[in-house]
Amino acid sequence: MQSEQTQPRDEQRKPRVGLFVTCLVDLFRPSVGFAAIKLLEQAGCEVHVPEAQTCCGQPAYNSGDRTNAQSIAKQVIAAFETYDYVVAPSGSCAGMLRKHFPALLDNDRDWSERAVRLAGKVHELISFLVDVRGITKVDARYYGTVTYHDSCSGLRELGIKNQPRDLLASVDGLKLKEMPNAEICCGFGGTFSVKYPDISDAMVEKKTDSIEETKADLLLAGDLGCLMNMAGKIKRQGTPVAVRHIAEVLADMADDPAIGDGSTIGRQ
Amino acid sequence: MTYTEDSRNKIMNTIRSSLGVSGDEAERITRTSIRLDQHKPNLIPERARKTQLENIALFRNMMESQSATVVELKGMDDVPGAVAGYLRDNNLAAEIRMGSDPILTELTWSAALALETKIGKAVPQDSAALSRAFGAAAETGTLFLLSGVDNPTTLNFLPETHIVVLRKVDIAGSYEEVWEQLREVQGQRTMPRTVNLISGPSRTADIEQTIIMGAHGPRRMCILLVGTT
Amino acid sequence: MEPTSHAFKDNVRKALNDDQLQRALGNVKTGFIDKRAKARAALPEFDQLRDQARDIKDHSLAHLDLYLEEYERKVTYSGGHVHWAATAAEAREIILDLCTRAGAKTVTKGKSMVAEEIALNDHLEAQGIEVVETDLGEYLIQIRGETPSHIIAPAVHLNKEQIEQDFRKTHTDLPEDRSLDRPEQLVNEARTVLRDKFIAADVGITGANLLIAETGSSVIVTNEGNGDLTQILPRVHIVIATIEKIVPTREDAMTILRVLARSATGQEFTTYTTFSTGPKRPDDPDGPEEYHVVILDNGRSEMLGTEFREVLRCIRCGACMNHCPVYHAIGGHAYGWVYPGPIGAVLTPSLIGVEKAGHLPNASTFCGRCEAVCPMRIPLPKLMRKLREREFEKAASPWQQRAGIKIWAFFAKRPRLYRRSTNILIAILARFGRRRGTFRYLPFAGGWTKYRELPAPQGRTFHQLWREQRNERVHK
Prior knowledge:
Strand order of the largest sheet of chain C: 1-10-7-4-2-3
Distance between the termini of chain C: 74 Å
CATH topology of the largest domain in chain C: Rossmann fold
Shape of chain A: globular
Shape of chain C: elongated
Largest interface: B-C, 85 and 108 residues
Number of helices of chain C: 24
CATH superfamily of the largest domain in chain C: NagB/RpiA/CoA transferase-like
Number of domains of chain A: 2
Oligomer: heterotrimer
CATH class of the largest domain in chain A: Alpha Beta
Radius of gyration of chain C: 26 Å
Number of strands of chain C: 12
């Protein structure tokens, strides 16, 4: 990994990064968490994983349960506020911490300032590497054609568009083929996908059509929720496209079975 | 009306309680009356802040991209011939309806052979009309037409063909400049019954998003751009 | 119209299985989006103008009482009449009364969403008045007995074959063997039929895109010119508008108009933008003899005092629905009332109650595209979330959902318990899902697995594995 920034000199301590793992990565795809740690360490960070984290609270927040969302937000703030940065391998969760925690706690005298202070330190993984750490290249290889889906929160709340593409361009052997309408929602939307499965399906079907059109052999995105939705549809349709989180490819850790292709963890 | 007075009070009261005001606050009243009196322009796009020559060129471009025909004439004396010529070239009847605008009626219409001119508001049988625009904004190729005996509003909509005389000196960059010109002529805080801002002939996209010209208003529009630059 | 928003899920199923509709919805995606993007690119100041447009409306709303009073003074001064209607029923009565007094047999109408909101046509028709919609799209749905499926393109759900059939059924006095294959022929036929109506009409009713306090003018924008023929030919012109349409000056109007057409159809400017002030003047040869403005509240003055005030900035451009993937999937009718798409998802529950339209703000992935394109910068996802909160507080959402969230939150708030429980849950799931890699069906996840596989977890949670690895790292 190469950085345009000057590496921190010895007396300068490494930035301490609190990794917000996200609930989906924790439960469904821990390998994304390890890929994130590898990338962060390569970028000169000291990575910590606070124990007192579960979820960012979006399921409650987006279901109208403000009270529970506030409690969870406070829990996250308390667990992460001592780090220099908070990084999540998800635009959606990073957006929640960065954009929505301050709004959620703005009437709380004790917490609103803490929420704003935390928000200023929160980043989505890939944009953190590029925009904050100045990373321009990764040491990774993938011999095939990939296509990239822009997840909504990352794109529209955090402005993540070129950063993943710039890093993918440095992966040895990787060819990026853009899909039409890469910026259109895949139909996941958290609880939306189970509350309105018919609409969600109509949306994800349009998305998988776009993916198929590229003839790519691998679909990447920066949010596991979207990825599980698209992978779930791709598997049901039987299309030969593998699905992975972008961090797995950038960290050169794309050897595990792809999403929905089984697992080797704990099988040894 | 039976309820309108009660309802007016009810609406006003709810608005005021929603805003947390009584309506008598001197500061609010001053703020609104200053805004109305000053009628300051907001942001004017850069493309509307150019030289007169550029304004004319932009107006022409925009109008043509909106499917209107633009013909440049040296002087008002060329108008009758150009009207006759446009009608002939489009295989249209040699007749034209216009209002009492002296700038149009005082032209030598007899010079345009066989062209029948009719004065007054448009009637359903009229096939073509001639109006004079009060002004125009170059920024989107938009004509400003004022109602009245000089240029009745029906001329703008009933006939299938609408020919509009626009003097080059009357082209402004922005809409706001035209409103300012209108204030100079008509006074502050007053308007003619109708001001039509027109950007090309009538159209619709209501059938499968396909643009079709001539929905209800004119099917074709020709701008006679008069003056030397 | 009677709202069917409560039956949203049924409406959705119907819409998704309607091939004709699905084909027509393709036009929304290709038509509007590219054109808006081009118009935006052609005007570098576009986003700055959006900020100003937002500020103008915020200022107008904050001084709404004063500007409405000023507007009323100016309308009266120019010889017009202002009528105030607190409710839809009042507005209908006022308009019916005006029509009756004008001895109206035929009324022409320009497109007006407010008229749809108060179901004006039914009311006038019940009194034997012929009401003719003159916007082509509105006319198409009127002869089908439908409601608009889009704010600016009411008939966007129709294909031209359907329109041809409707015309043959309705225009029975025209030769049967006429050709109606091409859109031009359909437009021409509508032009001819409606021209007679314009001329016969006694009263013309239009909406208003804006009301201007400075001059007492109402503004409408059209591309067809139907709104103009509606208002200049009949003896009486009635404008129906809601309180939040007011802006201070012509200058303010122009800023909003600069973003309106570009956001709506992607045009630089609409073909016709008409400023109407009072009835015809003494020496005017044409124009209406009477000019009435019916100003309707219908719940808006109360909204002004709530967190939903921002919705009142809406200028009805339709950009939010044009860019909404949910709207693309289900079309406008599924929303079940007058206003579809994201703006409808906020406006409908606010106007008819969250109990009747609770689905609408829930049926969004919060993808944020609506807010990204809204010319008035209305934070639509935020407002939908507020409605979900209202629903949750009132316990109006389905109890299973609320219970599910509460159980989940109970664990999420207790990290240690959460970790122990998820370790077990994930181990079980992984054992069953490992071989196939996905679940075809899972109890309690039917909503997901109906159409999709559920990818199986890798086997152990990240936190479990991390703890082990860290121990290894330390012991090395």
